Amino acid sequence: MTHMHVAGSIHADVTSPAPQWLVKPTDVNALDRRLWSDTVDRGAGGVLTIGGLTAEQIVEQTGSPVYVIDELDFRGRALSWREAFAGWKVYYAAKSFLCATVARWISEEGLNLDVSSHGELMVALRAGFDPARLALHGNNKSDEVLRLALTSGVGRIVVDSSDEIGRLERLTAELGVRASVLIRVTTGVEAHTHTYIATGHEDQKFGLSITGGQALVGMVRCFHSPNIDLVGIHSHIGSQIFDTHGFEVAARRTLKLVSQFREATGVTLSELDLGGGFGIAYTAEDTPATAADLAASLKDIVAHECRGFGLDVPQLSVEPGRAISGPAGTAIYRVGTVKAVEIGGGHTRRYVSVDGGMSDNIRPALYAAEYSAVLANRASDARPVLSRVVGLHCEGGDILVRDVFLPGDIRPGDLVAVPASGAYSRSMASNYNYTPRPPVVAVRDGTLTPLIHRETLDDLLALDAGLSPRHDEVER
Ligand SMILES: Cc1ncc(COP(=O)(O)O)c(C=O)c1O
Ligand SMILES: N[C@@H](CCCC[NH3+])C(=O)O
């Protein structure tokens, strides 16, 4: 275990080594356009603005921390995916970030929606999203969620196991309805991403294995089931992927399966869903492709593989989540403390503590995800100092931005903004340390619209049965 010594002064020369990829900026106030949503800029006095509102104006209305969605950016990305993938079905992956307003934006921009839990399905239905344009995912769907999907007319159910096929056979018979189904398969693809977010390889919980034979068995079973319409197969190889090679292998293996199914049954399946996982830029190190480039590559890949198997190109779909919601979101935090810490070898590291942390963004702790940040409430003339932005939780790993150059004069009361925060941060938030989860707001043309309210301490205390007993609760 390493011991850290707190240096006496926050002005101590901070010399901790920067990782190789992180270049010391010549202008610490500069915004790397690739990381920020479209309307982000620096206004008078260098204040960061989003959607025509300054960071201070936003925080005055919402408090901090707050997640800010740039509505025009979000809608623009959704539309660019729909247009780039014209002829395909584009499902926005709700798990990356969902609320009723976002479901309506997605609907208005003409995309479909992928939901993967009872809660996400409820939000979509309550928001008035057309059920026929919904896909339901999940490796352990309850009878309750399957019933809701079957009775509300959800367009497709992506089946994940043979148990689920049995459950669907029972429920469709019981309810007197039919189920339109895709089978999720594992393709054996080793996606080049963090192990926890790779899902195509064999040893994980999702889908039915192609190489193990379960996929074909499940497909044939669905085919013979009286109330199940098997329309296609689904593969999702993982997340935050930059290289199309994994999709190429997945397309080849899934289309081979389609041709084997054709041999077994004489029927050609009409749909292939290649899932999501398209990477975004969290830091200057990340170089994502545009939706248009991805669409062109994936179209070529599928056409080539179809030719190889003598298949017509099926109806194709993709499920981008992060690529739409991620870059549209910015997290804003208030700085509480700044300290320089001796880290050995004559180095010190500057720790900037803010009023959020791993409870609102678990990704750095969970996947060692890298982020970036800037001082948001003013510009600074001070020199760039390598800093670590950390949260307020009781964990050494409560890091939000591991390495970033921030102005040397950053101080308590300043605001820090973290770009590319729209996906899998607020949606994966927890109440660790009894911390209420931050609100989410949309900004557009100088107007702020609440999307998700700030959770309050009262909300949390109301769940504590020792403080707020519920009269209908059964005593055990
Ligand atoms: C089945 C499925 N589709 C789509 C997605 C969306 O992934 P991303 O947000 O990385 O595009 C996920 C999450 O990884 C997923 O599990
Ligand atoms: N939640 C993950 C990705 C997995 C998404 C669900 N399949 C992330 O933040 O990158």
Automatic annotation (TrEMBL):
Lyase recorded as keyword: yes
Transmembrane intervals: none
Enzyme type, top EC level: lyase
Active site: C394
E.C. no: 4.1.1.20
Domain of life according to the entry: Bacteria
Pfam families: Orn_Arg_deC_N (PF02784)
Amino-acid positions noted as binding substrate in the UniProt annotation, renumbered to this chain: R322, R363, Y367, E395, Y424
InterPro entries attached to this UniProt entry: Ala_racemase/Decarboxylase_C (IPR009006), DAP_deCOOHase_LysA (IPR002986), De-COase2_CS (IPR022657), De-COase2_N (IPR022644), De-COase2_pyr-phos_BS (IPR022653), Orn/DAP/Arg_de-COase (IPR000183), PLP-binding_barrel (IPR029066)
Residue ranges of domain Orn/DAP/Arg decarboxylase 2 N-terminal in the record: 75-325
GO MF assignments: diaminopimelate decarboxylase activity; pyridoxal phosphate binding
Pathway in which this enzyme or protein is active: Amino-acid biosynthesis; L-lysine biosynthesis via DAP pathway; L-lysine from DL-2,6-diaminopimelate: step 1/1
Keywords for this protein: Amino-acid biosynthesis, Decarboxylase, Lyase, Lysine biosynthesis, Pyridoxal phosphate
Residue sites binding pyridoxal 5'-phosphate per the record: G277, E319, P320, G321, R322, Y424
Subunit relationships: Homodimer.
Function: Specifically catalyzes the decarboxylation of meso-diaminopimelate (meso-DAP) to L-lysine.
UniProt record similarity statement: Belongs to the Orn/Lys/Arg decarboxylase class-II family. LysA subfamily.
PANTHER family in alphabetical order: DIAMINOPIMELATE DECARBOXYLASE (PTHR43727), GROUP IV DECARBOXYLASE (PTHR43727:SF2)
Protein name: Diaminopimelate decarboxylase
